[in-house]
Design goal:
The protein has ten helices and nine strands. It has 266 residues and is of the alpha/beta class. The protein has a single domain, classed as Alpha-Beta Complex (Spore Coat Polysaccharide Biosynthesis Protein SpsA, Chain A), CATH 3.90.550.10. Strands 1, 2, 3, 4, 5, 6, 7, 8 and 9 form a nine-stranded mixed sheet that branches. The longest helix is centred in the C-terminal third of the chain and has 17 residues. It is globular, with a radius of gyration of 18 Å. The model has no long low-confidence stretch (mean pLDDT 93).
């Protein structure tokens, strides 16, 4: 099975080598990789690091943000299964072999997701979260995406049915894409770790106000923001916490946080 993997980059030298190692470690008997890096015009060592790997690099300084870069990569990458991994995240060891096994055994499945590990800048595990079964209404009512982007892989035919990412989003294009995907089919959920999400101050997803605003955009686009939706979202939140107690405790203790660190006053 051939996997098409896309990575958007812009001055990504700090973690890119770990990301690329995680991509190419997937290749082996029965698993082929085509990896396209779409670079927005890096001025650091990003392209130098990428040159040490078999990835294809496309320099795209005129792209309109991360999701535009991902869309451009998806148009170029080859493979019957597609996904993207950001330049500071990682694909878990042997993850694509697990994904391939599911897709081979279940030809009717269009997309899969699985457990994600949250790691810090040094790669230390902060917690793990396994998604639970959900509906579109509960997913929208939750107000944020509990489908971990680092674990999502889709057959090319399914990706094309859903369509490209909406580039009007800066942070929540995934939330919007998964909402569209849920109108067609629920994902197959793997209980094994499929991806690793690195939490560090430099990532754009640590902008709480942008995330709240764009999450509301997704909710308003795909469903009503009413009492029933809110209640279903709260129930989904409780189920996530109950199914992932160590992840819940890590959040409560502040080990997993999507808020940028407070800066000391000068």
């Amino acid at each position: 099975m051939r996997f098409g993997v896309v990575t958007p980059t812009l001055n990504a030298e700090r973690f890119l080598e770990q990301t690329l190692r995680s991509v190419w470690a997937q290749q082996g008997p029965g698993i082929e990789i085509d990896h396209v890096i779409v670079d927005g015009g890096s001025t650091d060592r990003t392209l130098e690091i990428a040159a040490d790997f078999p990835s294809r690099v496309v320099v795209s300084p005129d792209d309109r943000g991360m999701y535009d870069a991902v869309n451009r990569g998806m148009e170029l990458v080859e493979g019957e299964v597609l996904g993207y991994i950001n330049a500071d995240d990682e694909i878990a060891p042997r993850a694509l072999r697990l994904v391939a096994a599911v897709l081979e055994q279940h030809p009717d499945v269009g997309w899969v997701c699985g457990r994600v590990e949250y790691i810090d800048a040094e790669g230390q595990v902060l917690g793990r979260m396994t998604p639970v079964d959900l509906t579109l209404r509960s997913y929208l009512g939750l107000g944020w995406s509990c489908i971990p982007q680092q674990t999502v892989w889709a057959r090319r035919a399914f990706f094309e049915r859903v369509g490209p990412f909406d580039i009007s989003y800066r942070n929540c294009g995934d939330y919007d894409w998964y909402a569209r995907a849920l109108t067609l089919e629920h994902p197959y959920i793997l209980r094994q770790t499929i991806g690793r999400f690195r939490l560090h101050p430099g990532q754009i997803s640590l902008n709480p106000e942008t995330m709240r605003r764009e999450s509301r955009m997704v909710q308003e686009r795909h469903g009503r923001r009413d009492a029933l939706g809110w209640a279903l979202g709260r129930l989904l939140s409780l189920r996530l916490n109950a199914s992932n107690p160590t992840w819940f405790l890590a959040k409560k203790r502040g080990r997993i946080s999507f808020k940028p660190p407070a800066t000391s006053a000068s």
